[in-house]
Amino acid sequence: xxxxxxxxxxxxxxxxxxxxxxxxxxxxxxxxxxxxxxxxxxxxxxxxxxxxxxxxxxxxxxxxxxxxxxxxxxxxxxxxxxxxxxxxxxxxxxxxxxxxxxxxxxxxxxxxxxxxxxxxxxxxxxxxxxxxxxxxxxxxxxxxxxxxxxxxxxxxxxxxxxxxxxxxxxxxxxxxxxxxxxxxxxxxxxxxxxxxxxxxxxxxxxxxxxxxxxxxxxxxxxxxxxxxxxxxxxxxxxxxxxxxxxxxxxxxxxxxxxxxxxxxxxxxxxxxxxxxxxxxxxxxxxxxxxxxxxxxxxxxxxxxxxxxxxxxxxxxxxxxxxxxxxxxxxxxxxxxxxxxxxxxxxxxxxxxxxxxxxxx
Length: 360
Hints:
By secondary structure, the protein is of the alpha/beta class. 33% of the residues lie in helices and 23% in strands. It contains 13 helices and 14 strands.
């Protein structure tokens, strides 16, 4: 995004909680920027720490029981982590909007959707409810809600999931923010409505210069929307790269597994979709060394003892002792039924089998 100053700058963000006699880190040493007008996707499996990171950015974890948040979160040059709560509340909504997971759960089921949009418009606007009624219709029209006057009088259960998601986006846009944090905004939607919501976010970026931090586990959504990809695993960033380069040459075995698990309509023949064995470790059971090594097909002895730093790898960053090999075409591992194998070995095996059968 050029040499512009970042709108959002996160440095060494850590989130931990006190468990028995020790602190367990849920998110550790996360650093990234979001430039004006940029869409950055934070991707990874469930349990990787994506949602916690998004909530920490807007200070929603300050009073969450035994959670402790440290590091720096600067927005427009202002430090949010040390900002008084009263001042931070003025930034939430007006300058940073947020769309939460599960639109049906995020809306009040006994309040008409128009009143919920109006409440946000009053709180973030002039404060005159009657004057904001026109603003409600404007916001609902802006996010593509048909017949907004009719929809405004309905309750959440009377409209579709896609319409509920649009209502949440309208609420998030009520203060005309410069940054939108969207946490899995399309998870509960069918593919047609998902495409409409993503198109809406793209249009808002184009028309308003809106920056977006998009949290998702859907690699197809990330490929379609993002300017840059941030890959999170077990509470840490393991790769940061421009989107085109990320999908062409992933720099981390975990990233490669995520990319190869995406179904492809242009595949030459049907094949079993790759899958990464195992699961993301629980925060209290994070292994020593590289947190991905128990699931990694390319692990070395050093991976089990030394955690790799996030270092330059091509045009991006990767936290892997073998990132150069992973990015090289000859070493791309694939999931082959019950084990990871190297592409080069698989091609050699296929060629050998064909020769033995007398095939060209």
